[in-house]
Amino acid sequence: MRMAAMSSPRTPCRYRWVPERRSFDYVRHGTIDLFAALNIATGKVIGKLSAQHRAVDFRDFLDQIDQIIDRICRYCSRISRPGH
Description:
Mean pLDDT: 78
Radius of gyration: 27 Å
Order of helices and strands: EEEEEEH
Largest sheet: 2 strands, antiparallel
Shape: elongated
Number of strands: 6
Low-confidence stretches: none
Strand order of the largest sheet: 1-4
Structural class: alpha+beta
Distance between the termini: 67 Å
Strand content: 25-35%
Helix content: 25-40%
Number of helices: 1
């Protein structure tokens, strides 16, 4: 952080001299949203990065998880009834 402006090192207060507070210029370089889910059965992490903070991106991630869960359920139903 850069200091915005130099100020006198101390300012008078009612009873004593107090160090003056300084302000800083805060530069934000942006953020990235990380959506993550853990598949406890396999230990795999399902993740997605998003440059914007939008509900559409989160819904897309939930759709991705839903597709993965559907595949797992279909696979489990096939192996649980081998004779059918």
